[in-house]
Amino acid sequence: MSKFIEIKPEELNQSPFKLIGKEWMLITAEKDNKVNTMTASWGGFGVMWGKNVAYIVIRPQRYTKEFVDNSSKFSLTFFNESFKKQLGYLGTVSGKDEDKIAKANLTISHLEDTPHFEESKLTVICKKLYAQDFDPKCFISKDDDEKWYPEKDYHTLYVAEVEKIFIKEE
Ligand SMILES: Cc1cc2nc3c(=O)[nH]c(=O)nc-3n(C[C@H](O)[C@H](O)[C@H](O)COP(=O)(O)O)c2cc1C
């Protein structure tokens, strides 16, 4: 089993723009002893309500949403470049249709009672604080509403406390 070492949020020295936007992450949660995951490239890290937080956005049709909604916690996991193909697959196929975690050859384990992957280089354990569906009335940039939501499938925004961050011991 890989060894993960806890670091403080202030010690995270990688750009969230690169980590999330370019390298992508997996959002993973558990429901009734079953784990599902999906790739995400939108979201962020920051500070809210006096807490270190992560925020993610999930469209209503994602199977992973049921898992995130039914759990108080979820993980965000980040991988080396060599996993990009698996992340592409996990972001195209639904866990409703395939046992995609097994097919992607990823190994589920738990940190802080939250599912994550042994193969990750960085795992962020998150505790949900807030969830709200994006509201079309609130768009200041109407262009983005039109561009990203022609089907009106507005993401739910989740703000979650960063409970712990782990990096893999090399
Ligand atoms: C690079 C990439 C980034 C993605 N980012 C998001 C995202 O931030 N939010 C979202 O709802 N879907 C996102 N998706 C789509 C989901 O990962 C995809 O629909 C996935 O198959 C859902 O799986 P599930 O039905 O098992 O949850 C992304 C897909 C890719 C390939």
Structure characterization notes:
The structure is a single chain. With 170 residues, the chain is of the alpha+beta class. Helices cover 19% and strands 42% of the residues. The protein has five helices and ten strands, in the order E-H-E-E-E-E-H-E-H-H-E-E-E-H-E. The strands form two sheets. Strands 1, 2, 3, 4, 5, 6, 9 and 10 form an eight-stranded antiparallel sheet that branches. The chain has a two-stranded antiparallel sheet with strand order 7-8. A hairpin with a 2-residue loop joins strand 2 (25-31) and strand 3 (34-40). The model has no long low-confidence stretch (mean pLDDT 97). The structure holds flavin mononucleotide (FMN).
